[in-house]
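Input chain follows. Return structure tokens only.
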Amino acid sequence: MSETIGEMIIPGTYIDVRSEGLIGVGGISTGNIGVVGTASRGPVGRVVVLGSYADALDTFGSYDRWPDAATDQPKALSLTRTLQQLFAGGASSVYAVRISSVADMASMNWTLTSATDAALITLQASSPGTWANAIKAALAAPDGQPVTLTLALGRTKETFSGANAGELAQDIRSGSRFVTVTGPADADRGTVPKKLVASTTAGGPDGAQITTTEVATGLAALENQPVNFIVVAGVDANTGAAPVLAHLEATENEGRERMAVMGASSDEPATIATNDASKASSPRLILVAPGIVADDAARAGEANTTVKLPASYAAALVAGKLSTLAPHVSLTNQTVQANDLTREYNRAAQKQLLGTQVLALVKNLGIRALKGITTDTGAFRQISVRRIVDYAKAGVRIGANPYIGRLNNPRVRAALKATLDGFLAGMVLDEMLTAYQLDVSATRAQEITGQAVVTMTLQPTFSIDYIKVIMNLQ
């Protein structure tokens, strides 16, 4: 904050403190993940921030049993299963959006009535979908005693009581996570509920078989969120690359750079090259193969509790791992916590996948990423290079933001350069860069219009490329 004395009338010493030299660059997020997918529970189309898999289960419910038939697998709910792999990979901050192909998804509801069957209180599941169909609701209304309502879902139970409809409704409204309450009307607040009637229309359907339209809608909800990686649950690059690439382009243009991790549509290298790599070339897209073998909690008690998941779930595991790494740390040869792979590639297949810019998972003293690459064939083929440059751009925006609206003169631009110099020098010390060049300039015309040009030439670690970044601040 600038400290300036307005009037210097009385003789003495006056100090003018200009804060430009004290401005630094604050923290930059590097491991936040955004994910969209289908679930049986939770708000639809709204971003929910999760910090653990327990949070995911609490918000979006358990996933369903993985189908045995391949034709039924697109019908499986994808969000919670993907969140399981994200957190298994190491994710700590996930921005999740539930999407659905059903526009008006029903919610399970119940009605509490009087002894004469007059409707008093309506209970509706807190979110639409099939999850609340399993709630067991019971009403106890003995004469002369408070009314008790019990809602049980699995091992979780909620109990509410009140002397009449008004008190019971208030207790439910203030304490239930399962349902929302409507009523009673003022005239019925003193009436005692005697019966509980469940709706004949169950909640759902969940709308699991999504299209690119629903994917694009879910990704739009994440546009303004501080995420660094994007995952589309259960969708492969062959069918879902278009909305993801459009999202990456739009967010980059808005200064919210991020990368996407998607799975291949097949484990076969030749099919991947034809169906996936040809549709998904981008310096911000990572294509993962093959699929993984994972435990299926919905099969507990069965003889075989493991299932083969397609590469879209392997992509979630890789994204979780990436979120734990600093931008300059390569994913190459890093281990991921998978039980097994759905296919083990030989050296010829590995070479073929690397030639089509596919991040292959291989068995080598565990499950490892063979090489940390994007689908780009140019300067940003390495994931670490793309992340380093994005980190530098984010730092420039954060460091330059306090200068917006200040005088655009040589003194202030020198202070801006000093701020950015300190940030980039820190990147060199952190070994993100081996060297850089920086210039902050403005012509007389740009000074008048409030513009300054920041030109950076960056040399990322482990790269022989020089990346030139020009940013216009105004």
